[in-house]
Write a structure and sequence with these properties.
elongated; about 70% helix; mainly alpha; single chain
């Protein structure tokens, strides 16, 4: 498998960033339609379903924020000319990994060690 070109990588990362920012904005907009007071006021009535939904939304926003940070770091690596090089061992990251996870900062071996 060929390594993606820098231009293609930058485009993919920017598109993913834009999509995530839109998802984040939509989640926050949906959440703002119901102020926190509304969530806590109805806890006794519905068994806390509204509070659970609020927590779910907050968790999703935190996940999106983390993904956006990874994309920003990948864009910085593209600009620095270090994109596609494992930050741990310094070896090239497999093209298949970069295609499936464009923001990958580690090769699969180092990522597996990190997660263990």
């Amino acid at each position: 498998m060929r390594r993606p070109s820098v231009t293609r990588v930058r485009k993919m990362l920017l598109e993913e960033k834009q999509r995530l920012q839109a998802d984040r904005a939509r989640l926050l907009d949906d959440q703002s339609d119901r102020p926190d007071a509304d969530y806590t006021a109805g806890i006794e009535d519905d068994g806390g379903a509204d509070l659970m939904e609020l927590e779910r939304t907050r968790a999703l926003v935190m996940t999106i924020d983390s993904m956006l940070i990874q994309i920003e770091k990948a864009l910085l690596r593209v600009e620095a000319g270090t994109y596609g090089i494992c930050e741990v061992c310094g070896k090239p990251i497999a093209a298949a990994r970069l295609t499936s996870i464009p923001s990958a900062a580690m090769c699969i071996t180092c990522q597996s060690r990190y997660e263990a």
